[in-house]
Amino acid sequence: MKHTSTKKLTTLGLLCTLAYIATVFGRVPLILFLKYDPKDVVIGIGGLLFSPLTALAISVIVSVTEMFTVSSTGFWGCLMNVISSCAFACPAAYVYGKRRRLSGALGGLLGGWGCQVAVMMLWNYLVAPVYMGYSREAVAQLLLPAFLPFNVIKGGLNAGIALLLYKPVVTALRRSHLAEALPASEPAGKMRFRPGPFLTALFLLASCLLLFLSLRGAF
Question: Distance (Å, rounded) from C-alpha 219 to C-alpha 198?
Fold first, then answer.
């Protein structure tokens, strides 16, 4: 039991580190002042590997660390980061926890995508005026042309990248003895390459790219 707990803490520490690195070095401008970073991918993988509470813990640790190091938005920005990450990763982990199969992972990630979009539309309207210095009317005018497409692209990228990386990452962690061995309910045959998830992930990523390019007036 002690060995298992130590192994889990080590893995959580690794995931927190990777998520923080993704936050600091992976930011990409998308729409106006809104930037995407892939930390939710790491948090989502942590949630799928362990539980929704694990996703919550990683979200809080990374967001608080970000607040004290590289962020300029203070407490409110930290709160929004936690809410955004949890809105994606926790539903995905919950659904997958109920059905630990490919269909559960896919359904969870897509559900997390939709949940993140809906939740952040509400919280951007409620909280963005507080820490952005905009009036609520100005924020309301940005909801459809800026916040909605940003969160659609962000959630789609999160789901697509997580779908591509989950199996390779978990396999590497198991081989390094940093994650539990494959349970009997998940036979080894399921580790083979499957075109379905790969093509679904590519479709999501391509759709997000096309939406981004269209918003930039590329076509």
Answer: 27
